[in-house]
Amino acid sequence: MSEKNARAMLVFFWITDVAFVVYWLVTFLELLPVEYLYQDYYNPNLLAWNLSFFPLDIFISITGFASLYAYRRGRHIWKPLAMLSLVLTSCSGLQAIAFWAFKADYDWSWWIPNLYLLIYPLFFLPGLMRELAKVKERDS
């Protein structure tokens, strides 16, 4: 992975991880007007479904921020942390998209951010996987 690609990926981490933290703060503090909430927001099952993403999203942010920190400190652990964060981010987006698709709810205000979560990691994972494979091969 080139230095340029690594830096681009870390910008995406910063944006995504901050957005997750802001989303959950806004959610828990109930700062959004009702018209901006997803369909059936007050249905207890949908509320539980949404809240079930909290641990995953926060873990994504923790691994993303840790990767940023390790990168800035020149520690090689940033790459495995980045891989973990990217895979989990894509999984988070996939789970949400699958849910909305099965529900046949095509509100783009929810689809676009979740498609972002699903797709953006796919641009960085191949290069990062090649980098980690090289390191493993060199070390063995």
From TrEMBL:
The chain crosses the membrane at residues 7-26, 46-69, 81-102, 108-128. Keywords: Membrane, Transmembrane, Transmembrane helix. The keyword Transmembrane applies. It holds the Pfam family DUF5360. This is YvaD family protein. It comes from Brevibacillus porteri.
